[in-house]
Write a structure and sequence with these properties.
The complex is a heterodimer of chains A (190) and B (322). With 190 residues, chain A is α+β, with helices and mostly antiparallel strands. Chain A has 5 helices and 8 strands. Chain A has one domain: Alpha-Beta Plaits (2-Layer Sandwich), CATH 3.30.70. Chain A has helices spanning 3-7, 24-35, 53-68, 96-112, 158-168; strands at 38-47, 74-79, 85-90, 119-127, 134-139, 144-148, 150-151, 155-156. In chain A, helix 3 (53-68) runs antiparallel to helix 4. Chain B is mainly alpha-helical and 322 residues long. Chain B has a 4-stranded mixed β-sheet, with helices on both faces. In chain B, strand 3 and strand 4 (131-135) form a beta hairpin. The chains are: A alpha+beta (190), B mainly alpha (322). Chains A and B meet through helix 3 of A and helix 1, helix 4, helix 6, helix 8 and helix 9 of B.
Chain lengths: 190, 322
């Protein structure tokens, strides 16, 4: 964002970066090898629905696209308490790459329709015997990932989160600014 | 290539640029006039007045800019809150967390001000010190839903992204100096003139220098005042626009504006007076100057009229559904 844009108050909506998403399958292998964390097969895309017909048309297309897709067990749509929409895809546990491809299809449909700035984050979940739930959150606007490990009562297990950061640091671009690791309490699919 | 739905408002940009340019012109004209006046005479006293005015003006501007967050927080008696402090704070943090991730900007500090008014403002000299303040009235109001609160917060975050505190401080600098100059010149005429023998000052053919400085100062102050208010209104429109595009919900902002401005009437006097200094940063001004004469009111106000803001938002809404 240029100096002039700031001074003239014409900041543009931030565009998402979709390509980094495909480094997730490698990171999944690393997570299993180093921390025994396996994908649950659930992933979700979170976006802020814009008002108007154009957006609802695209949203409808995306749902149809996903339900027609190969091997997708189910697609669920939910709205969280902040008014953000979550599209949750459930795949077989061992078909992680298909899940990532589906998530990417949602993103690119929204972006092609001109609603890229509405994308907030994508979340894929992992589990192990010791860590009940781990979410790897992808921030579209930053092009970075961060781990999110919820404990009971809206507390985060920061120790595990930092451990995950160390484990996947070589495979994923982890968000360096810890203040941007925002909590996604009650995210569908987590 | 993916298409973009973002269309910059060229008219608004052009008007804003012109306003800033005119402010620059007034500034240059003001300085030139002072140099000419002081150069033509060799009066030490008027030179001293100008020097002191510039110095005090600079100190005031830099001080109010540097401590803008602290001044505003203590004026509004607002307290910076963390996400775990209260259910209201948790809700506020949750909404802002998502908005800053959408906008890809650093998260400002959040503060809550104990006030029954429905209002919010953003302040701070840079991204690190910026604070977003929300009144308890706004946070606890049952008639405002989450979408409307989100729209208001998105508007305030746009002020932070546009560095409006810095821009308006620099713009106000000229007005502050001109205002101080008028005041100093007036006092020096009153007291300094009275101390001298009574035939030296007013009898000669030339006007007293202090009087000329006074007139130049008044004219500069008046013109820059109008331009600053104009700039403030344009920046409000720009923040409305950026905020509405951020959430993709211009209508939520429109309904929030309607609710908030409707509630601004009939507020106790005491609150109105304590709220007045923060007016320029408020979402909707709490204190309306004058009250008679629609056009004059529009000329002096820090915020555009409700109709103007709603018109822009419905244009954006139409643009989004295309």
């Amino acid at each position: 964002m240029g100096f002039l844009d700031t001074i003239l108050g014409r900041t543009k909506p931030a565009q998402p970066n979709l390509d980094e998403l495909f480094s997730l399958p490698t990171a999944a292998i690393t997570l299993e090898a180093s921390m025994n964390l396996v994908p649950t097969g659930t992933g979700s895309v979170c976006f802020r629905a814009a008002e108007g017909k154009a957006f609802s048309d695209i949203e409808k297309d995306v749902r149809e696209l996903l339900s027609m897709g190969s091997g997708t067990a189910s697609v669920e749509v939910s709205t969280d308490s902040y008014g953000f929409t979550w599209l949750t895809c459930q795949h077989a546990r061992d078909d992680f790459e298909a899940l990532v491809t589906d998530l990417h299809a949602v993103n690119s449909s929204l972006q092609d329709g001109g609603f890229g700035p509405q994308l907030l984050c994508t979340l894929v979940s992992f589990t192990s015997d010791t860590v009940h739930r781990l979410g790897i959150v992808y921030l579209y606007k930053r092009g970075t990932f961060y781990p999110f490990v919820p404990k009971s009562g809206e507390q985060r297990d920061n120790a595990v989160e930092l451990q995950v950061r160390g484990a996947v640091g070589a495979d994923l671009k982890v968000e360096p600014d810890l203040t941007r690791w925002f909590a996604v309490w009650g995210a569908p699919g987590l | 290539m993916a298409k973009t739905r973002y269309a910059p408002d060229r008219g608004l940009t052009a008007r804003m640029t012109l306003t800033m340019f005119l402010l620059g012109v007034v500034f240059v004209a003001f300085i030139t006039a002072l140099v000419l006046i002081l150069g033509a005479t060799n009066r030490v006293s008027s030179g001293g007045i100008v020097f002191i005015a510039v110095l005090v003006g600079l100190a005031l501007t830099v001080g109010s800019f540097w401590y803008s967050d602290k001044i505003a927080l203590s004026t509004a008696r607002a307290v910076v809150v963390g996400p775990q402090d209260s259910p209201g704070a948790a809700r506020l943090h949750g909404i802002v967390d998502r908005l800053v991730a959408l906008a890809n900007m650093p998260k400002p500090r959040l503060a809550i001000a104990p006030s029954p008014m429905l209002n919010a403002f953003a302040t701070g000299r840079n991204e690190k010190t910026s604070v977003l303040v929300v009144t308890t009235g706004l946070l606890n109001n049952p008639s405002l839903d989450d979408r409307e609160l989100e729209a208001i917060l998105a508007h305030e975050l746009s002020h932070v992204a546009h560095k409006d505190v810095a821009v308006m401080t620099i713009a106000s600098f000229l007005g502050i100096i001109a205002g101080l100059l008028v005041r100093f010149a007036f006092y020096s005429e009153l007291f300094g003139g009275g101390g001298r023998s009574n035939n030296s000052n007013n009898n000669g053919g030339a006007l007293p220098v202090v009087l000329i400085v006074l007139v130049v100062g008044i004219v500069t102050y008046a013109v820059s005042f109008l331009l600053i208010r104009l700039l403030s209104r344009y920046r409000e429109l720009a923040a409305d626009r950026a905020g509405a595009l951020l959430t993709g919900q211009p209508s939520a902002l429109a309904s929030a504006l309607q609710k908030v401005s409707g509630s601004m009437q009939g507020i106790p006097n005491k609150d109105l007076r304590t709220a007045e200094p923060l007016n320029a940063f408020y979402f909707v001004p709490a204190f309306k100057a004058g009250g008679k004469g629609v056009s004059l009111n529009g000329l002096f106000s820090t915020h555009p009229s409700l109709e103007r803001r709603l018109r822009q938002l419905s244009e954006i809404s139409e643009q989004l559904s295309r």
